[in-house]
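User:
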Amino acid sequence: MAQNKCYCGSQKNSLDCCEPFVNRTKKAPTAEALMRSRYVAYVTHAVDYLVETTHVSERKYHLKSDILNWSVSNKWLKLEIIKATENTVEFKAYFIDSNGNNQIHHEDSTFVFENGSWFYVDGSFY
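Assistant: Predicted structure:
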């Protein structure tokens, strides 16, 4: 990702945006920053980061193999943040699925701040 615009759509250089979070050299300071970095992790197939940033109470529902399969089988196009509060983020992730069909993953995600880090808990899907 180095020296390119961040995949999250912020228009920032990836080094000044999500890359330090995905590489775990910095912690995401907000739920929205974590959500953006998780989108980048799907684009770049950083499955360990996705698992680590899922709340421990929910990890058993998210198999690494399933995450990796979904990450690599789709061509990720863009992320659109609809609305963000302190601990929720509504977003649309645009992608082309493995059958070549345009798709939109529309979710209202919930996050929790615990032990100095943000974690994805769950989401409602539209």
